[in-house]
Amino acid sequence: xxxxxxxxxxxxxxxxxxxxxxxxxxxxxxxxxxxxxxxxxxxxxxxxxxxxxxxxxxxxxxxxxxxxxxxxxxxxxxxxxxxxxxxxxxxxxxxxxxxxx
Length: 101
Fold this sequence. Notes:
Elements: E1 11-17, H1 20-25, H2 27-40, E2 46-53, H3 62-74, E3 77-79, H4 90-98
């Protein structure tokens, strides 16, 4: 949790794998879900989950866009299992952090 989170902070989860093979195996996605659930602790605080099979090099991913929009709409925090699941572009990551989600 960050300094501004409370015990009732809601979360929107974003999961991503790079290839269809990873997505079909479920292993990468299940590990991400487990990490998010271990962090959040109370599943009812997860207000939405978005999953994508797409390269991390692209920042214009549809499910990521929807996850960000849902987090903003609900006043929730965007939560990811690992930073590399979000993006490989540091500028993009910092811009997202500064957006308040």
